[in-house]
Design goal:
This protein is α+β, with helices and mostly antiparallel strands. It is globular, with a radius of gyration of 21 Å. The protein has a domain of 228 residues: FAD/NAD(P)-binding domain. It has 11 helices and 20 strands. Strands 5, 6, 12, 13, 14, 15, 16, 17 and 20 form a 9-stranded mixed β-sheet that branches. The longest helix has 32 residues.
Length: 402
């Protein structure tokens, strides 16, 4: 029998961030995951995340930032967004808000490895990889989990951070609201003849956005191309040369000629929103609670803010039934409201930039151009994108250790 204060199901970046934050407040934590632990980093990973300044603050506060392989990450100082075949565009610069960078592009496994490395240094964190959970019993007094090898785990609180297809969510019959974005995303790594110059770029196409995210090498970018399923299928059917030509044309040769240097992977995009984020002593966070369109690169950052928010609200004294219920209600109200705002914003942006209606195109062009020339509006957007504005947890504001 394993007995602990908190058990986290899912050793991804969000779950491990929650584990570290709670452990550094003196709470004992067990982390369970069916996957393996540290992963060897060789070729550039296809799945990357745009890590905001707020998320960087969280990682620094938890002593994680120092463990990253910084030779494999790229700080970006500027961002450019434009619409294909239109006069509309907007550019953001970190110096406009007194910062040196807008964020970092980091491979997901680079982040996860850094989190695991710091977690291994904490005496009150137990990491159990290759340990799938086979059963969960949730009650008002405790949560009892059973591992696939029969080991029972008794815990005062269970955090479900087990991804978009959450096993915990299904086991507890947690209702979700979901909507198919009618988009699939293609991710790949490309080389370009022109250097990215630490600028993140995104072109809005009639059937979806295409992002060029700068990586550590000056002529290497990660691309995320979101489009209708039939269009994605046709793009995937192209040979490497023709696909690269399609990217070059779609991006208006912004970085010169594009060369594909990796395989292409696609996945469907679906909005998910758990109607309950709290079920007795089980709480959901990250993709287990919400998934949104990658149009603005916010998914990982929203999950990290979930983790930091619960860390702020919870301490060892609040694990009793009455106190815990109050804390979890506050967490649910706080984070559900934030997720709703971003889900609505992403849906609105997707709808605004879809299609080739001439009137909508003119409105979009005028809107982008006006915003680009109105400093207060652009500053507000920049600060929100960096995660430095709004109701954010203390960990995201303060880079000093807990």
């Amino acid at each position: 029998m394993i007995s602990t204060d908190v058990t986290i199901i899912g050793a991804g970046c969000v779950g491990l961030t929650a584990a570290l934050g709670l452990a550094k407040k003196g709470i004992s934590v067990v982390v369970l995951d069916a996957a393996q632990g540290l992963k060897t980093l060789t070729e550039p990973e296809l799945r990357v995340s745009a890590i905001s300044s707020a998320s960087e603050n969280i990682f620094k506060a938890l002593d994680v930032w120092q463990h990253l392989d910084h030779s494999r990450s790229c700080a970006y100082q500027t961002m450019k967004v434009w619409e294909k075949d239109s006069f509309g565009q907007i550019e953001f610069d970190a110096t406009d808000v007194g910062e040196s960078r807008l964020g970092h592009i980091i491979e997901n496994n680079n982040l996860r490895n850094a989190l695991i490395t710091e977690a291994q240094r904490q005496s009150n964190i137990t990491l159990l990889f290759d340990s799938p959970v086979s059963n969960i019993h949730n009650s008002e007094e405790h949560v009892l989990l059973t591992l696939s090898d029969g080991t029972p785990v008794m815990t005062k609180l269970c955090i479900a951070a087990d991804g978009a297809n959450s096993w915990v969510r299904k086991q507890l019959n947690t209702p979700i609201t979901f909507s198919d974005y009618d988009h699939h995303a293609i991710v790949a790594t490309v080389k370009t003849t022109e250097a990215h110059d630490h600028c993140a770029r995104q072109v809005m196409l009639p059937d979806g956005p295409l992002a060029l995210l700068p990586m550590s090498e000056p002529n290497t970018c990660s691309i995320v191309w979101s489009s209708e399923p039939n269009h994605v299928a046709s793009l995937l059917s192209l040979n490497e040369h023709d696909f690269a030509c399609a990217v070059t044309a779609a991006t208006d040769s912004e970085l010169g000629v594009v060369e594909l240097v990796s395989k292409r992977v696609s996945y469907p995009l679906t909005m998910r929103y758990a109607q309950q984020w709290v079920n007795q002593r089980v709480v959901f966070m990250g993709d287990a609670a919400h998934t949104i369109h990658p149009l603005a690169g916010l998914g990982m950052n929203l999950g990290l803010l979930d983790a930091a928010s619960l860390v702020e609200l919870l301490d060892s004294g609040s694990l009793t039934h009455q106190s815990l219920s109050r804390v979890l209600r506050k967490y649910q109200g706080w984070r559900k409201a934030e997720a709703q705002n971003y889900i609505a914003a992403m849906a609105g942006l997707k709808e605004l930039f879809s299609g080739v209606n001439p009137l909508k195109k003119i409105i979009r062009g005028i809107g982008l151009s006006l915003t680009n020339n109105i400093s207060p509006a652009k500053t507000n957007i920049t600060q929100h994108a960096m995660g430095l504005k709004g109701n954010i947890p203390e960990l995201a504001r303060n880079v000093d250790p807990i």
